[in-house]
Amino acid sequence: MSAVAARAAAEARAGRMVWYREMLHFARDPARTVMSLFHPLLFLCILGVGLSGLVPGDGYAGFLFPGVLVMAAQTPAISVGVSIVWDRQIGFLREMLVAPVARSTLVAGKCLGGATMATCTGGIVLAFAGVAGLPYDPLLFALLLAELALAALTMTALASLVAVAVRRAQTCNTVLGVLVTPMVFLSGMMFPVSAMPPWMAAAAMANPLTYVLDAMRRTIAAASPEHAASSLFAPLTLGARQLPVALEMLLVAGFALAALAAAGACFSRRDG
């Protein structure tokens, strides 16, 4: 094995171990997962079903469903950022840093672990698809999970970027709440971007989660003719142009990778 291949294998092994540690924490604390689902399910079962009788046309609960999935993934995604700060405070991060691997590998392992946890948590909400009038279609669920995984990676990378720049866990938690919660609400989760005032629509178009939710709704519309007929599921447009789903996913993936690279670079500089 060449030196380059051996180095790559060592980096992959280190990243996998960090990912595995996050998954162990996730598996050993099911109560936290159950509690984190309380608010998203409240939105779906109370707000979504309740407003379905007030909003003209059918399918408001289905319109809200992608936002509920992202909301379910929000808490575990943020928790990864907070865990970085706690690891630094208790000294575990220092022990990780003595390993002969790149700091960016440790951050990538953390982010992938957080994204996996967030996707699994959001995946549980798929069991409630019937409440939103969605069909229990395995292909539809697989596509929604793939799109949710990208949203989870984006939020986890942002949380990690904040965590490597903040030293106190309490401050990190507050900053993440201030940052991520507006992102979720400005993503067109509760009402279409086309119904927003211009200043709010401009903020929504700069939000990567907006494109994930639009892709999810177009996925639902493709699988459910009932939802496709609703004006709530009209595709997002940029000017007069409708963006392809593939381009939306590329934009979000680029944002997530940029945040991940920035977190890795900042981690190497501040904790090196």
UniProtKB/TrEMBL annotation:
Where is it chiefly localized?
membrane
Which UniProt key words apply to this protein?
Antibiotic resistance, Cell membrane, Membrane, Transmembrane, Transmembrane helix, Transport
Q: How does it sit in the membrane?
A: Multi-pass membrane protein
Per UniProt, residues of the ABC transmembrane type-2 domain are 31-270
Q: Does the keyword Transmembrane apply?
A: yes
Q: Spell out the subcellular localization from the entry.
A: Cell membrane; Membrane
One GO cellular component term of this record is: ATP-binding cassette (ABC) transporter complex
Q: Where does the chain cross the membrane? A: 37-57, 63-86, 107-133, 139-163, 175-195, 245-267
Molecular function GO terms recorded: ABC-type transporter activity
- Record carries keyword Cell membrane: yes
What is one GO biological process annotated to this record? response to antibiotic
User: InterPro entries annotated for this entry?
Assistant: ABC2_TM, ABC2_TM_bact-type, ABC_2_transport, Nod_factor_ABC_transporter
- What PANTHER family does the annotation carry? NODULATION PROTEIN J
Sequence similarity: Belongs to the ABC-2 integral membrane protein family.
- Please state what the protein is called: Transport permease protein
Organism of origin is Nocardiopsis composta
